[in-house]
Write a structure and sequence with these properties.
6-stranded antiparallel β-sheet; single chain; 346 residues
Length: 346
């Protein structure tokens, strides 16, 4: 007689695993289905994202430029301090040599006075604490030593302060470098998205960029805005010779520029030294808040953090280095991407 056994039921554990796996597969399929449409961004969405990334990169660049400028300034200050310390030490050594001659004379006449021995010790601070007991030394010698030691203390303090600032700047540059890498990663992602556009969409974006750059080869009419000054006119004329030069982060010419690099270079050609960064350039002259009061050659600033600057060109136009992927060109102030904050007359 055949044996009829009850089929073995799957364990609860196995059922749970299978159910969980099935649910996960369904969820992944649903997520993939939902993600697919969002991966394909429209032309306008891609452009908006890329423009935002360019703005972030320019912000990081201006901060990096500022940190680099501060570091260079501190390095010069430290070099000066080190020279001062060396000269002060040389003066102190000469004084000690003179006192050594006095000690030799005293020894020949019967021994070295204890106070002189103290003065010649390796710790002159001990001597200064008891300087009033040194009848053998002139007040002029005591005053000279005090002056040199005071100077040494001051220079040592300044050197230590500069060293701390350099450490801070080094950390800042590292932080900014990391931020720049992050932005570059975002730019790479934006480029990947640009590559997903159709040939027609790419052509439309290229045409928009071409229209924006077309005025680079055209002379802006300046009927409504005379030059702010002879120097401003010279700076503007210098900037005009750079039309068509590519935008490059951190560049100050003569073949490529970032925004503040172009303005600082242009004024340098007019014999005027202005700061390197847009934020610093905003504080070097008379501020002009009404666009109607602007004159050719005035610096014009955009965005709340003032991270973009150009030269006013008249008729509501500026001459500037816009961003990565563009060239030095004329552009309407209404198309910069950020609000006009104010102008500065150098």
């Amino acid at each position: 007689m055949a044996s009829h056994r009850r089929p073995k039921q799957p364990s609860r554990t196995r059922v749970t695993v299978l159910t969980t796996a099935a649910a996960a597969a369904v969820a992944l399929s649903a997520n993939a289905a939902n993600a697919a449409p969002s991966e394909k961004l429209g032309k306008d969405e891609v452009k908006a994202k890329v423009d935002k990334l360019y703005e972030q990169a320019e912000q990081a660049t201006e901060k990096y430029n500022g940190a680099k400028e501060k570091q260079q300034k501190l390095q010069k200050e430290i070099s000066t301090i080190q020279d001062d310390v060396a000269r002060g030490q040389e003066e102190l050594n000469k004084l000690r040599d003179g006192l050594g001659s006095l000690a030799t004379a005293q020894y020949r006449s019967g021994g070295i006075d204890a106070s002189v021995q103290l003065f010649l010790s390796s710790n002159p601070d001990d001597y200064l604490d008891k300087a009033s007991t040194l009848d053998q030394l002139s007040s002029q010698q005591v005053d000279a030593l005090k002056k040199i030691q005071d100077k040494q203390r001051e220079l040592a303090q300044e050197r230590a302060e500069a060293g701390e600032k350099l450490k801070d700047l080094s950390a800042t540059r590292t932080e900014l470098g990391n931020k720049k890498k992050e932005v570059q990663g975002k730019l790479a992602e934006a480029q990947r998205l640009l590559n997903t556009l159709t040939a027609k969409e790419k052509a439309q974006l290229a045409e928009e960029q071409q229209r924006a750059s077309r005025s680079s080869t055209e002379r802006v009419e300046l009927r409504d805005a005379p030059p702010a000054s002879g120097r401003a006119q010279a700076a503007f004329a210098a900037a005009q010779t750079r039309i068509g030069s590519p935008y490059v982060y951190g560049a100050t010419g003569p073949s490529s520029y970032d925004c503040s690099g172009l303005t600082s270079w242009s004024y340098a050609q007019a014999g005027v030294s202005i700061p390197r960064t847009s934020e610093a350039q905003a504080n070097i002259g008379t501020r002009i808040y009404s666009q109607s009061d602007l004159k050719v050659g005035d610096l014009v600033f955009f965005f709340n953090d003032l991270h973009h600057v150009g030269l006013y060109a008249g008729n509501g136009q500026i001459l500037h280095a816009p961003r990565t992927g563009t060239v030095v060109r004329y552009e309407s102030m209404t198309t910069i991407g950020g609000p006009f904050m104010f102008g500065v007359r150098v």
